[in-house]
């Protein structure tokens, strides 16, 4: 406060000396015209000077002016700016009128900001408020359903899991498909962007721009083609000083299954019917004094039932033994404020989320300092610093009983957790996950941060010259300890050196140096120009290490110095990539009606082949603001109508190894001596994928801006696809990366929002967004007609969508024999399964036909209730969970779902599974390919803001309490077996991580309930 | 103000100029291929790299997904699926393999072939002499061995094939765009023979442990000829191996025999692929896993087969262990349980041993009606496997059967049985015994594979069929 007083004093002295006498002080209150509520933080500026102030929390201001000729400018985001001549007044109260979003909203386009009016490109904006205070740590996951055309699919339900982000469909086959992440103007390396989503604090986010069309992404040239997510963090600019404390506490639990496992009695009968005797029963036979070699099939029905009863009596539910309800706790303090020259935003957060089993935790500490100051009237400095550390306890994510989420379905209910002597029972699966979690702890630590320093010269009006240095850092450490004498150690360890420990680390440091000139000028009163020129250089250095030792004395001594001997697998690695760029953009508008933008960017990168080091990208766009035309001025109901179109190119260089183009020999070892081998098939022509993007759209605001929205049609043609071409393995290699093939995505994005009720006490609004995308591979490479994915479930073939499923078709059972039947390639029925009979299943792909989100919020006085839904329609998932839990008898050893009981038993049985037999093979066929459409109630929040009249007494500016529920309802119209929301099959078993292709016992989706408080003073 | 423009332009120029050099980056963990073959040390590294390829994950280093040390035994009559195990390799055990779920030895073997072909292509950079000859010989021998293994797995037996039957592509090129057709089977075998013969001319008498020497190549050639039914040539190659074998690798005595399987001796081993803890290739896991609660076998030793091992047979204890797990006794395969010290289930992988060479020659002599020679070799082998052995005196059919029985015992669980039945055009006939130590328990669900059945050929991986229009799948 003192600082503020001081600066006001200085300002007034300054104005005093310039304007001599007649200075006076103006005071007043600013309120909103619609509701009459005082507006804090409104900027009040004396026109033509640097003198300015802000309204306080009650909407009051006080400012010194030089005399009666002065004019005051009142501006506030979301309201129309008002200019008032001072005249004789000493008290000026202003009611600000709501402005259309269109005209006032400032959009961060990456290298600069524009108002939405000036924009002729396709950019979706998510405000920080929409993602704040949710019980999910990752910003990527929080974007789900918030922006049209942006598909977010959580990898799985693990606390801290990342998400697949696909903007306007899948644009690449083998190269990266994730969008570029830009934080406060710095391009984040693709390797570390997933961690940035998780270590940045979502509550520090001011807004997020999602750049979609060419006019938006071609600014980012070789890194832009998958779209760009631009995160801008909060600053203290234009805010009164305040302290905010937030707290959240809640629970985390597995969503219930939509299928039932067989009861113990059902399972025992099923085993008997299939001719299988389990080990618990064998033990019972021995203990019950039956002669050696007696089996379940040699005894009387009554004896068998006695044995079964004994097993049933000892049965238990493994869900209860393995799963738990986790806790979520979050604390955050932020302090922000500003005076005329300097602003600051400082925040600290601690976020803990327990997973739904032991050994699955997420802990995050995040800190932030954003500072801005004006050094000279023509020179300002800003610095944004963010550091976050997160620690997670990790579980195995694989199809075996080391993974608790397979284990809950993998251990029979009659198998005890512990042996009679108290040791863990290793069960029919050979491992006990509870012992594994205890004795093979795995932790990951990520320290991520960035620092961005910008020095901004603005020597004359309209000209900005700036230099920005962005430093990005990630320090990743993973520890995996196999404790001595644990079960796994006995399987794989060295009997003479028990226990082993692996420490693995990766350090990635990147810098992004941006030199930028922006010049705004007018030629006459009708021609407005904005010119941007950028020179940028990025360099990324990644180093890594692995340390391994074995021979540990105790399970609680896990540091490497306790290890007795080396395993010989200590390594370090180092890689570098660079990207140098030049960029120019010109924006022109005529009378605020017609807007024209041209962009050109040239990139050169170390990643690509000697013959193709450089690439040039361009874009052009235009828009027409019809509501500025005289013929529409009279249409009161129409606030904004804008048509826009863009065309241009961008590239994709992610997902490709740094030295992919080179012909290199690498080294290894044989019998502790050096070896060498050719590493890859080289390709000196290797370069980035090119994407030609076209977009047309219309933006509108109707009925006093109550109904706002946009419709867009896009068409994106990717060519020179970076393709991992399979080659004949007789060459000694399985693939080579080349630029071949082409693909097309076209579709529609729709975003709508509506204020249904806007009264003083009642507010009701709704929003919705929708995307339809059609993907077609248009061309592969010479001669070859299709490429199968490495999971051998789908294929990529011209005139079909990417990853269209390719499976043998199941033809039901032979009603006479109960044998499984299949269709051959030609449609004949056969009982002989052959993978050669797999056919393309047109229209069935892991990508949804439609997706999006919708929601609503209602408030009455201080109470507000909001609900957010997301939906995904028309996508198919190969359901391994079903194949395993509803097997044809080959999984008789492990629990089965009740559906597995419905198998062929006698001639004439139809609509059944094949005759169950332990020697069957449940082949991958379209029987297990399911439509995974769903609509999910993602979040419900009910909040109450305590009236200021009460909180003021305690010097509290605002106090809000809220409860949230996450994943409360799911509509599963096609009865998908298990959870239809599928991201990753699981982390360890699949070579190709194709979004939503398979589900195989990965970490399940969870349901959270939280209670929270936000306190500002 | 002009200064600001000047400085800015300077910064831009400097930055742009400095970048160009930065756009060329070379790896820290590799060298350009043109620097890979210059010095003799480069060639030594490259040949060792080819041995590493032989240890591929579905080849000699395989465990659960097809492995040279276990899959041919799983496919045959030596083993019974253990119900307590993980049911690994079940598809092989019940002969239920398809193109997209087959033995992926294919890519592993061709990887080894491509590594030696690259070396051979650069061979002219070496000065003539012993060093060059030895590396040259090793490369040819590895190429022959890998092609021979491919032929054993994916093609018909030589003795049942006609001139039109297909083998596998015999690859000598390093062209990465290669889309070869299958070389006719008989032609492919003759190319294997040629490579071995050339290798034998070039190889040194002795070599590092884990590398092929002259006697090893001769032993392998005697095996190839045996598969071809070329009895005289097989006997000749075996004779050469017996003449050329270094003393350190000669036939092990009964006392030395156990040490072979914990890698404490090089006796008996003509060629083995080195496998250290750091290579993380626990080949024994394909057979069993050990816990404090007992050993869990993946496959039990077939009880009928077990009974063929007499108590004075040193192989019985070296190969087979008894365990109790979950209260039930099992017989498990012990010979890959680990070295004297070090990680469980990590041992060197034996590719050819002297025991086999004697058996090769015995079989060849028997088929050449040289019963005396056959019996002598058989007795030589048996006297080094049985304590207190008294020479046998079998003749006629009994001698032939004794040779086959010794072959099955000697090479048990070394990836030979399936190929032996296949080359002799015999059926696989499994016993009725179950998976428990006393022969009770659940027996094999599929008991026989008729002689020369189509399932004696493994399907070529579907990925190869898809990418290579010239590749013909085996018929099923």
TrEMBL record, chain A:
Belongs to the TonB-dependent receptor family. Gene3D superfamilies: Carboxypeptidase-like, regulatory domain (2.60.40.1120), TonB-dependent receptor, beta-barrel domain (2.40.170.20), TonB-dependent receptor, plug domain (2.170.130.10). GO terms for cellular component: cell outer membrane. It is found in: Cell outer membrane. This is TonB-dependent receptor plug domain-containing protein. The keyword Transmembrane applies. It holds the Pfam family CarbopepD_reg_2. It comes from the Bacteria. It is a multi-pass membrane protein. Residues 1-21 form the signal peptide. Residues 117-228 form the TonB-dependent receptor plug domain. Its main location: membrane. Keywords: Cell outer membrane, Membrane, Signal, Transmembrane, Transmembrane beta strand, Transport.
Automatic annotation (TrEMBL), chain B:
GO terms for cellular component: cell outer membrane. It is found in: Cell outer membrane. Residues 332-476 form the RagB/SusD domain. Keywords: Cell outer membrane, Membrane, Signal. Its main location: membrane. PROSITE patterns: PROKAR_LIPOPROTEIN. Residues 70-226 form the SusD-like N-terminal domain. It comes from the Bacteria. Belongs to the SusD family. This is RagB/SusD family nutrient uptake outer membrane protein. It comes from Mucilaginibacter hurinus. The lineage of its organism: Bacteria, Pseudomonadati, Bacteroidota, Sphingobacteriia, Sphingobacteriales.
